[in-house]
Description:
By secondary structure, this protein is of the alpha/beta class. It has eight helices and five strands. It has helices at about 15-25, 30-40, 45-50, 50-70, 85-95, 105-110, 130-145, 160-170, and strands spanning about 1-5, 25-30, 75, 95-100, 150. Strands 2-3-1-4-5 form a five-stranded parallel sheet, sandwiched between helices. The radius of gyration is 15 Å and the shape is globular.
Amino acid sequence: MEVILLGYMGSGKSTIAKGLAKQLNLEMIDLDHYISDKEQDSISSIFKNKGEIYFRKLENKALKEILTTKKNYVLALGGGTPCYANNMEMIIEHGVSIYLKGSIQTLRSRLVLEKASRPLIKNLEDHQLVEFIAKHLFERNPFYEKATHTLKIDDKKSNEIIGQITSNML
Ligand code: S3P
């Protein structure tokens, strides 16, 4: 079984993927880690030294590699993965895709604590975050909404989200 989790930064893709993979006895793959391992470099440093377009090319290549060569996994994408090149088409074709959908307020409250590790928001002031997330989500939602399933994550604990996925979506 191939399960692919997508959603905005801070929506819990990696955490949920870890728990879900454990429960289903599948391999957990984190696309950002996969890219980092291949490049022997952090995502922040790739963004800083080579730029976002270079990162998006790596991301597309890594995604294609995973989807076409691996089986039986839970894959956590990066927040932007579905929105570039033909990524969302490939995702839909190769597995059950699940959009972990958080409200702007939920995402803001999580991201304000973790800005530093995220190249796209690390230079924003805290008060600029809401507007940035709102605009960005407006652009990205049409891609995210193509997922096989959409699951609202506001005010839910990881266990509850994992339970809803295993009982209703797989
Ligand atoms: C990005 C999200 C990040 C990472 C990169 C770009 C984005 O992943 O891929 O910083 O465009 O939203 P997370 O969603 O795991 O933070």
